[in-house]
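Case study 2.
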Amino acid sequence: MSPKSAPAAPASAEAQLKGFVAKFDPKVQRVIRAVRRALRRRFPTACELVYDNYNFFVIGYSPTERPSDAIVSIAAGANGVGLCFIHGASLPDPHRMLLGGGKQTRFIRLESASVLERPEVEALLAAATAGARTRFATAGRGHVIIRSVSRTQRPRRVVA
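Prediction:
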């Protein structure tokens, strides 16, 4: 790993993740926690790949420890939380929910975790799962992996 990032021991990864979330305004913290709970229920065997980067705090959901196998991620900044579909540009999106214009990734904004319950978002999650190169295990439990932590970061709270 590069000098700006260091692996965390599995026992401390959850505590470290909670510390990253604590940097945000309380409202954003609540959304991150609720969305994470919902995605853990949906992907119980997923590896949660955590990045506390310069621009965003990210939790990727992958069937393996390889970032390239991730299908979705939570991305949070001072102004809110989004759900990124790693291969969103290729997903069917008849309701035009997906935002962004990159060659690969698309996202939706999440005011709350309840957005994940909308049928059109559920369809996007199902399509992303079905299109995954690597399938999620059907048994077992996922774990948290701290992939990188940037020494410098944009503010995680709205600056007045």
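The chain has one domain: 10-149.
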